[in-house]
Amino acid sequence: MVSGRAMPDGSWPTSKGTVKFDDVYTIKSGEVYDGKMKTYERSNITCKGQEESGTSTAVFKLEANATLKNAIIGVDQMEGVHCDDNDCTIQNVWWDDVCEDALSIKGGDASSVSRVLGGGARYADDKIVQHNGLGTVIIDGFFAQDFGKLYRACGSCSNNPAQRFLNIRNVYADLEVIKAQRVDPNVSIVMMNENFGDEATLHNIRVKPGAENYTECSYSRGVQKGDKPLILGNGPKKPVCKYSMDEIHLVEGGAKQQQQTVGTVRPANEVQQGNDDKEKDNKDDKEVSQQNK
């Protein structure tokens, strides 16, 4: 039995109003910001697809040990939410239409733990959660619809080589809807860097397949900023992609041909295309982090 949050049912929350910020809103260390299920966006920024920007184009910036909960991130923004000092909590936050990426996690050290609890994101051309910092990310009870990667351990950051850990469970990935302009037709729920010692643990993943190839977990050879990571393979492989196929549950109604692609390995010389892992400007808690080490 998998502990943690409930599995999402694929529904989307109703907004209770709209709030527009002229500048990125900073949530201070130790503060809990309750968005009361309103939609938050920027008054002076529109999405420009995969154009790289930084914290200044986000809606929220969280300091270490800050919490954002019960919020919907609207269309008018570029960088969604930034956790620039790691060790933040994102609880019941929904991204209505992901721009460059939804959540960027940066900074921290090997003992840092950031959590994404509940919530969801949709229409991501590439990444939903970009992990540039150190330590562990926990994703529990999340709904992801139409995306390139739900989580990416940065494959080309200037702080590489850096080891990163992921614990992801009770996630519903709906790939049947295709609205985003995906930079790579091959979808990865999780992508790690094998040569950096990254470790991902997957439990209770529900997948509704679509018309394009996907894998639950893929792994690359990470590089430093300026180079492109090389895709090495897909599917269960310890310690980089720790799970069994019993943890993957296909939802009825998905494309039958996709069942054959789960856990298959792509050619070792396949280079990830598109805007993968661009580095932007510059608590299962600590116990989980220690277990993963």
UniProtKB/TrEMBL annotation:
GO cellular component: extracellular region
Region spans: Disordered: 254-293
Record field: compositional bias (Basic and acidic residues): 275-293
Database matches in InterPro entries: Pectate_lyase_PlyH/PlyE-like, Pectin_lyas_fold, Pectin_lyase_fold/virulence
Main function: Pectinolytic enzyme consist of four classes of enzymes: pectin lyase, polygalacturonase, pectin methylesterase and rhamnogalacturonase. Among pectinolytic enzymes, pectin lyase is the most important in depolymerization of pectin, since it cleaves internal glycosidic bonds of highly methylated pectins. Favors pectate, the anion, over pectin, the methyl ester.
Protein location: Secreted
UniProt keyword terms in alphabetical order: Calcium, Lyase, Secreted, Signal
GO molecular function, a single term: pectate lyase activity
The protein's required cofactors: Ca(2+)
Protein name, as recorded: Probable pectate lyase F
EC number, UniProt record: 4.2.2.2
Principal subcellular localisation of the protein: secreted
Reactions mediated catalytically: Eliminative cleavage of (1->4)-alpha-D-galacturonan to give oligosaccharides with 4-deoxy-alpha-D-galact-4-enuronosyl groups at their non-reducing ends
Pfam family, one: Pectate_lyase
GO BP field: pectin catabolic process
Keyword Lyase appears in the UniProt entry: yes
Family named by the database record: Belongs to the polysaccharide lyase 3 family.
